[in-house]
Amino acid sequence: MPSITLTHFSAALVFALFASVVFGVTQRNTSHDQIRYGLYCFAMFVGGVFVAGWAMWLIRR
Amino acid sequence: MPNTATENKENKTAPMPSTMSVVAPAIGWLIPGAGHLAQKRWVRGLLLMVSIVSMYLLGLAMQGHVYKPNGGDILDMLGFVGDLGAGGLYIITRANDWGQGLISHATADYGTKFLIVAGLLNFISVADAYHIAIGKKP
Q1: ipTM value for the complex
Q2: Backbone Cα Rg of chain B
Q3: Model's pTM, two decimal places?
């Protein structure tokens, strides 16, 4: 298998993207709702990354 | 007078599952997204397939660890259940003995999580394919 090295942030973004697509497609019925829910999940994932990052920064200080 | 007891018995018996309600989850587990494609949900199926397969392959490329059934540790068993959700991808991975590297850096641990979550997302996809097959979801 070819090897790939992602940074912590890019790995989190890729994870958020793919998980949000699956959540959006499977958890809502209409196309409009699927897109909205997918974007909501993506925003929550990425927002969670920033919140966790700042929380760890505060703990470290 | 009609035989009401017989009618009630007939009404209470569960409807026979359609062929698609069995086939769609099965092929959806083996090939992520195929359960939707078999029911002509082309866009949904392709989105699920691309997302789950990409996530799984990225996990492998990040040197993630693939769990075996006889791990011994409870967390290894849970990891195996997650990995197993990827179906055919997991079978191919084990057949080629991929994913056996030691987790020597942080992104390799991310790779392990990518592999597990790809399998878990495929379980959700399989359940969705079943709901479409039985008419619970459009």
Answers
A1: 0.93
A2: 19
A3: 0.88
B61 and A21 within 8 Å at the Cβ level: the answer is no
Q: Does B86 touch chain A (CB under 8 A)?
A: no
3-state secondary structure B14-63: CCCCCHHHHHHHHHHHHCCCHHHHCCCCHHHHHHHHHHHHHHHHHHHHCC
Cross-chain residue pair A19–B121, CB shorter than 8 Å: yes
Residue tagged 């056996």 (tokens): B100
| pLDDT digit string, tens, across residues B73-90 | 888 899 999 999 999 999
Q: What is the pLDDT of residues B101-137, one digit of tens each?
A: 666 676 788 999 999 999 999 999 999 999 999 999 9
Q: How many inter-chain contacts (A to B, CB under 8 Å) are there?
A: 69
